[in-house]
Amino acid sequence: MIIWLASYPRSGNTFFRILINQFYGIKTYSIYDDPLFERLTGVADVVGHQKREISYEEMMASEKIFFVKTHHLPSDDCPAIYLVRDGRDSLVSYAHYILSFKNESLRKAYKNKIKSMFGWNEFNEILKKLIISSDCDYGSWSQNVYQWNKPSKFTFTIRFEDLIKEPLHQVKTAIEALEIKGDFSRINNQLPSFAELHETWPQFFRKGKSEAWKREMSQELQELFWEHHGQVMQKLGYE
Description:
Rossmann fold; P-loop_NTPase; Sulfotransferase_dom
């Protein structure tokens, strides 16, 4: 069977994969195969990332459990662990990720879609597009959160902010809530800190902190964000 490790991009998905790999030796997969890890030496080993060797249909039909990362909107009834983060921090981090890793042609596409009235600021315009647009695969931040947390879905949701504060507790609670069968004996008491991850791979593991948006999201963009995502933010208890 598949258990989705789902999230909107830059919401703690990779950090959760690191945790279950380091704590329990659980290897995970990704529907994207995460080719970026090939460019960042050592990341795949820390994350516990595995290349997929069978189809998703075979994974679903198997008695073995496969943990698979996705940012896509849900399309089946498989159980899921959903990572959610303050949408402002997710979008700020995602905008930096696009600037760091996406190819130049994609960056030009963003630039051509949105023109600033007050001069071009690539980061701000990418962030603006992420706020107001809905990706056909991921949806907007609000759509992603809403779709994965419908009452009809068997999903356990973890807040990124809680995962950073008490990682082992959050992982154990998720596994117990989904009644996942298997040997989950601790194999390792050592966990790389976010600071260590940042020092080794600074572009991918940027900060791992909350409320970075206060320094990087203009008042105009904050108001735009609340206009588009305020209802879901309030439902989640973010202010």
